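writing this on my phone so excuse typos. first protein, seq and then structure
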Amino acid sequence: MTDAALTTGIQTDDLDATLGPKDDLYRHVNGKWIASTPIPDDKARYGSFTILAEEAEVAVRTIIERAQEAEPGTEARKVGDLYASFLSEGFLETLGSQPIDPLFIEIAGIEDIHGVLRMAGRFERLGVSSFIKLFVDNDPGDPERYVVFFEQAGLGMPDESYYREERFASIRDKYREFLGAMFDLGGFAQAADRVQDIIDLETALAKSHWDNVTTRDSQKTYNRMSWLDAAGLAEGVHLSEWVNGIAAPPGVFDTVVVREPSFLTGLAHELTTRPISVWRDWLRWQVLRSYAPYLNTGFASTNFSFYGTALTGVTKQRDRWKRGVSLVEGVMGEAVGRIYVEEHFDHTAKAAMDDLVANLITAYRDSIAGLDWMTEETRRSALAKLEKFTPKIGYPAKWRDYSALQISADDLIGNVQAAASFEVDRELGKIGKPIDRDEWFMTPQTINAYYNPGFNEIVFPAAILQYPFFDESRDAAANYGAIGAVIGHEIGHGFDDQGSQYDGDGRLHNWWTQADRSAFEERTKALIAQYNELTPREVPDAHVNGALTIGENIGDLGGLAIAWKAYLISLDGSEPPVIDGLTGAQRFFLSWAQAWRMNIRPEEAQRLLSIDPHSPNEFRCNQIVRNIDEYYAAFDVHDDDPMYLPASQRVRIW
């Protein structure tokens, strides 16, 4: 059956006839595009997400530039003034390191470890990196209250593996060169000695860091304790001096969650055994690397040479206006987002998304009800959690208040510091107050989505609700294969290896029977083993880390499988039309593949393999469908086809 009024939503001209969906679904759909589409010089990767991000960036630029003419003192004018302060490139060139010299003077006067701690605490309000990352979230053990979290930090490279693994030896050499160049720019003598001391210190700190698989563990990282107990982990160090530096309201640290307790102990050892001169240089280094993007060309380009070129392979720094837009979005993203929604969001999409979400929830409900490996006791708890999911679509119900944030059009570093202090006050100000379930943790103009286990919510910003993920004018199969699978993915995070440990109220506790948990873990281990065998084309000598990516892989697997069920629900028993020779099932899977289209540089591919909990896009596409029976039927895949995976090895979880 055909229906000329419908479109496939598939770029059929891009399909590679020489490489079929039985051979490589990802490259059948995207191979011609990948071969003919160079990665822009200022990007490490380029694909469906980044193309939409570019379009949103241009729209936001227009909003921000218009805000420069807004009435002084208004929220819009703050947006415009912040942008103007970043674009004042000529003025910044004349300043050199002058904006940060007062901090260097302060650091030079530090005489003991108490002074180091106070300065590290002050860094929270200055927008400078420190050795502890501080954030506020609802308490996993008591989700109706906020609590402060401490997380390991203090490293200048992406994570602890960069300090120990042989494959990163060349990056370590470039990091050393980068440190020396930055100290030279800062006007510090004997840069080589300072660099060696910092390398040694960070290498020691890295040994106390937990690896990125362990830091995913919701149980191991939930260590709620009193301030007295937390401070006791840092033996020989008065962490109260760090708190004094933050200038936090009384009582906010009475109870904290220390995600990696042994890191605090290791940090204390370094604080008490390293010379104060080394810690002074480490503090100087944090100032240099944190503020480099906001100083003159020398600092900014040197910073880019490492964090851009060395780590990700990007050869050109982003245009200044793009970096300015990123700064504004990071500081006042919802102020911009409110206007973006008014001007660019098709509100009819929200109603269509409501229907999609409802069908996905129904499909998950049906699937959970029919699981052959789950007992009735656990099934009831899983269904109870599903019923409590909260979807958020488009934009927040209420917008963030920026009235307390002070911005100047001619003081970029001052603005960065004011923004950091404003954010510290906003976050710590949550302690003792009711949970704000209307808060969003992405802006509406973000091309992404997320699941928040503590709130048991799935969130879809306005900007992702467009082609190739969603298009009201196309046939439902393509929408379910793309945005439907994204919705399913985010719901799936509520039932992945970590999200499944939270109940429907966001509380971290075990609602599983032991037998059901074992059956679940048997399936997740099989999926881990599948991904451990995969090597991306860009880095053929490196493997995917199945344990690091398992949560996202479960989300992808459940998301696509449940999206298919939801598509069938949307048909209400009718047969899907054949459009341009493609069946509904074929359009569904081709749309899934199209959504993951991406070109990536080898350096970026290597970096992401090391730190990113998401698998490479080619495997998010191909390895998932290899586990779904409907894919085999859609394209008549048999055991002599490259994409074939024996039925006994296919993993089905939800």
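second protein below, same order as before
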Amino acid sequence: MKSGIDRSIMNTDVRPQDDLFAHVNGGWLATAQIPEDRSRYGSFDILRENAEAAVRELIESAAERQPTLDSAAGKVGALYASFMDTEQVQQVGLSPLVEPLTEVARASDPSAIAALSARLQREGVDGLAHVFVTADAGNPESYIAYLHQGGIGLPDEAYYTDDEHAAVRDAYRAYLGTLLDLAGPALTEAGLDAALGGDVVTRVYALEERIAAAHWDRVAARDAVKSYTRLSRAELAEATPGWDWDAWVDGIGAPAGAMDAVVARQPDVLAAVGQALQEVPVADWQAWLAVRVVDSLAPYLTDELVEAHFDFHGRTLSGTPANKERWKRGVGLVEALLGEAAGELYVEAHFPPAARERMAELVANVTEAFRQRIGELEWMGAETRERALDKLAAFRPKIGHPATFRDYTAYQLDAGDLVGNVRRGAAFETDRELAKVGGPIDEDEWLMTPQTVNAYYHPMLNEIVFPAAILQPPFFDVDADDAANYGGIGAVIAHEIGHGFDDQGSRYAGDGSLTDWWTESDREAFDARSQQLIDQFGTLSPRDIAGESSTVNGGLTVGENIGDLCGLELAHLAYQIATDGAAPEVDGWSGDQRFFLGWGSVWRTVAREEEARRLLSIDPHAPADLRANTVRNVDAFHEAFGTQEGDDLWLEPQDRVRIF
């Protein structure tokens, strides 16, 4: 059996005891070139490229066959064809902007602004509050709509205030001016000249700055308890004077009763927006809406608008030199609007049954490892332990793809109407989501497509999900030795289960409810260990940022860091269960060494500095090199490689963080 470890990409001049990430990936890092259309590149991205190319082939085949638009393949082909028809796109020019911008010009009071913002949001234009539908954490047997803070064009509130983002703020204001200039003829035809009089960029930016000042930071916003405020319609209206919720609900097209109760994740932000609706001149709101329309639709319009949109969102925010080829953007659009239709084609062509069977075995062993470890935790008392085991027993794994693929019958497409397809696609998805409110949970629904290279844990559904496309090397190789597979996909499985017990996932009980099932002393013990991890990562800087001035936000990344630590500890125990603790030497490495080398190879990634800085600000995941080197906390790593005091990854045993 092959080891599954690629020697050709290693740098053996760097010892694993000093830097596992560089040891495993250093040869690749020395020659890696980030593609011009990417801001970072690594293991995940390579697999995404493979999936992207596979989906392209399937889509183009469907487009060439021209099956009926009533079929999934026909819809996929028609949407892709509408994006690839550049002659048609240039011919229609700015005309798709005129109708929505005319509606903006007619919005003459705060209620009309609220209604139109919601109507446009239903069709894919960024709005006042992000809306998503999922299980109600207070009653996880039914769906409810969640309202999350929105209304701003920069990545988060810190971009409006922090000194390190000053250049981005300047570039954003310049971008807004460019958008308005390029869309000028459509704005004039729509009758928006009066609303856009004066320094429109300054007014739009000032309105966003006002909204951003009320936003919660990302650490506070991820708090499961603080961000759960269930409100009736009357309570919502009382908490947010100035926001006409009847008009907004009508605009977004919610079915009768769907918004009778909502979860306001940041109710004070909604209140601040309501106050702004009362106090900010309607003309400024019209200008804000006009910018949101043009920015949201720019990727589907003229070459000049596509370039302006990419120049800011790609080059400025992420440092990406070149936009993706048009076919890649076309595949991305199909993935966004018809993801499961494309996924059905992908699964038929690329997902072998043997992969599902092997994965089921891995999941079973990792789950058993968690069961054993929970049973022996010295810091967890009997009462909490019993409830933790009950939660673990209730976990539901999903592997590969949904049992039934999504029905897109109601999505009407026209191969000659790209922007119409985009707007109708977004409306179809909004309507599909809102129609779930109040109904029973669909346990077969997936929140990722089969061709997605990722995995997730859903706390209210208590499920772990592993799409087909991640089940490839270096994560998973059906023909490889157990060690690399447990260090790769095994650690991903354990990571996702670990999210059920991280700082936020642990707030949810086994039935998905936001219920405190911990004793006070056990929660204190858990929080103390979590704080150790926060403090540890708060001192670390990623290699993709020059100097050491930028450190990880330990509070923002703690959930993912707990997931990684669980992934390592529990996947290693699962590997021992699978091999009865007696793994042979392969290619000169012991079983434990191969396990950790497999873990390190998963994080093979390099990023442009602009993207590294952006992610450091907004991403709940730590940078890849630091994730790989979290092995410093694992006793088995130190034993496998014989680390000792003075080695760069050495931590005194009492300083190693162990949660599970």
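The chain is about 55% helix and 5% strand. thats all i got for now
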